[in-house]
Amino acid sequence: MKSFGFAAQSKTAPLTPFHFDRREPGPDDVVVAIDYCGICHSDIHQVRDEWGGSMYPMVPGHEIVGRVSAVGSQVTGFKPGDLAGVGVTVQTCMACENCKAGAEPYCTKGMVGTYNAKTYAGEVTYGGYSDVIVAPQHYVYTISPELDLAAVAPLLCAGITTYSPLRHWKVGPNKKVGVVGLGGLGHMGLKFAHAMGAHVVQFTTSESKAADARRLGADEVILSKDESAMARHAGSFDFILDCVSATHDLNAYLNLLRLDGTLCLVGLPDHPQAVAPFSLVTNRHSLSGSMIGGMKETQEMLDYCAEQKIVADIELIGYDRLEEAYDRVVKGDVKYRFVLDGKTLKR
Ligand code: NAP
Ligand code: ZN
Hints:
With 347 residues, this protein is of the alpha/beta class. It contains eleven helices and 17 strands. Helix content is 24%, strand content 26%. The strands form four sheets. Strands 3, 4, 5, 8, 9, 16 and 17 form a seven-stranded mixed β-sheet that branches. A six-stranded parallel β-sheet has the order 12-11-10-13-14-15. Helix 11 links the parallel strand 16 and strand 17. It is globular and about 60 Å long. The protein binds NADP nicotinamide-adenine-dinucleotide phosphate (NAP) and zinc ion (ZN).
């Protein structure tokens, strides 16, 4: 089927209007007319080929909310007119141990991303900076009409990527939890950790974000360049979620963990980062990572957000401001997620 959106033609070119074909919906597919799409820092890493292996033309976008416009004959959970979301994943093998356990991002055959990927059949995937998307029903989520839909879009990546590790490491009351970096992921991690009842400390490099961090649920805010403030918290955290997009010193955070504490990376800077063995050996620390979340868990997160009235803090923008938004995200100047308004996508 015909689709229209914005694409990067190379790692240095600005995103420009692009006409392309998507597959005709099969029996298991849901077609979603896109109303909103969030801008994730992963979009920028991939458009600029910072992780390597990028494919062009690339239509980014994996924080998608819209309305179902058609369904295949075997689709049971959706009908035309329903609100629906699509996130980072559009295909997994559904047969390996990890898929069966609901951990589809860790599919042993390899999960297929919503864009910049190829399906098992070899079809190139194109993301949500566009008018419409086709995805199998397993990768489409039910969205509550109770929340601001534009602000729901970032839950599909920033939301689940922070919710999943917080649940996995059992964050809750009587836990001291750190969130590093107040960007798209960080501000969701902060909201969730606060809602789950933890004592939450936000780490930031941006003094100007301190008041916002408190408003978003932080019990304490630490400027990470303030060495004496960092030192006062040494050995005290149960869990720290690192949401930073650029190279930074991991040892500074490992040293803040208590006995058996975990530093979990969700941020994906492109360069390796040095870890001092002493930062791990001391207090039996763990350094870990986490990728998005499973499909069932994503729906659980969306339902939790509907119940708790949690959405992202967003700046809703038109496609004419895409380049400006990318530049501002890279500078850490976003409050706290840009979301593209589908109404501004003019053919
Ligand atoms: P973002 O909105 O740009 O937020 C990143 C934040 O990191 C910034 O707001 C800034 O916060 C901090 N930061 C930036 N540069 C820094 C530096 N040089 N040193 C220290 N802190 C710095 O990005 P995002 O969309 O939240 O994504 C964050 C990272 O997660 C990206 O690398 C992205 O690719 C990755 N990601 C991973 C997954 C996954 O499944 N694991 C999913 C989605 C995204 P302060 O101003 O508060 O310091
Ligand atoms: Zn993302």
